[in-house]
């Protein structure tokens, strides 16, 4: 999914930094049981990446897919740089397992992000997600939009893609790329 979206970001002039979480692929380390290490790692990667840019970043977009969307949802906006969060296939129904029953911490952080003045979130999910039922995801999406409405100034958009499962293969992957491209154009 991240490989699919990289060209979309590059065409829009973004610098792209992709990494694997600890213990995934050829990365070192071990996954932490509650994801706290991964949350800290992402924060460090973001700070390092922003520091590598030749000038000031105009905007930072944090993208998380599946388990990565849980981790991304815990990252607050950067203090002096507009920050957007793109969450794809948020693993709602299995988050308690992925966070060793700490899913409330992730839910609270995400709702706070959607409520925050600086919040800018796009959550995309499919109606055939392999792990989370569409009814639960629709309810979750409504909660994100309600948190934004309550806060009054966060930008929160949720997109249900018909026919999409958790993995975004084929034609639905192209629709995902189109949704992200349109969203980036609005930034």
Give a short synopsis of this structure:
With 187 residues, the protein is α/β, with parallel strands linked by helices. Helix content is 45%, strand content 14%.
How does this structure look, described?
By secondary structure, the protein is of the alpha/beta class. It has a single domain (2-186), classed as Alpha/Beta hydrolase fold, catalytic domain (Rossmann fold), CATH 3.40.50.1820. Helix content is 45%, strand content 14%. The chain has seven helices and four strands; from the N terminus they run ααβαβααβαβα. The protein has helices at residues 2-11, 36-52, 67-73, 95-98, 103-115, 134-151, 171-185, and strands at 60-65, 83-88, 120-126, 155-161. It has a four-stranded parallel sheet, sandwiched between helices. It starts with a helix and ends with a helix. The mean pLDDT is 94. GO terms for molecular function: hydrolase activity. This is Xaa-Pro dipeptidyl-peptidase-like domain-containing protein. Residues 9-70 form the Xaa-Pro dipeptidyl-peptidase-like domain. It comes from Calocera cornea HHB12733.
Which terms would index this structure?
AB_hydrolase_fold, Rossmann fold, alpha/beta, 4-stranded parallel β-sheet, hydrolase activity, 187 residues, Xaa-Pro dipeptidyl-peptidase-like domain-containing protein, Xaa-Pro-like_dom
Report, as a whole number of angstroms, the end-to-end distance. 21 Å
Beta percentage is 5-15%
How many helices does DSSP assign? 7
Q: Can you list the strand order of the major beta sheet?
A: 1-2-3-4
Main sheet makeup: 4 strands, parallel
C-alpha geometry: globular
């Amino acid at each position: 999914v991240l490989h699919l979206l990289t060209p979309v970001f590059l065409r829009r002039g973004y610098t792209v930094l992709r990494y694997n979480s600890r213990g995934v692929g050829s990365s070192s380390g071990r996954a932490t049981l509650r994801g706290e290490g991964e949350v800290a790692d992402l924060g460090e990667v973001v700070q390092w990446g922003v520091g590598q840019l030749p000038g000031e970043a105009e905007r930072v977009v944090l993208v998380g897919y599946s388990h990565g969307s849980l981790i991304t949802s815990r990252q607050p906006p950067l203090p002096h740089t507009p920050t957007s969060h793109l969450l794809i296939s948020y693993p709602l129904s299995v988050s308690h397992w992925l966070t060793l029953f700490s899913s409330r911490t992730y839910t609270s952080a995400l709702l706070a992000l959607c409520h925050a003045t600086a919040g800018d979130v796009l959550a995309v999910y499919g109606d055939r997600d392999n792990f989370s039922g569409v009814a639960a995801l629709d309810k979750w999406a409504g909660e994100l939009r309600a948190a934004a409405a309550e806060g009054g100034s966060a930008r929160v958009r949720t997109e249900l893609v018909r026919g999409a499962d958790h993995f975004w293969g084929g034609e639905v992957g192209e629709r995902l790329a189109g949704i992200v491209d349109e969203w980036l154009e609005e930034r």
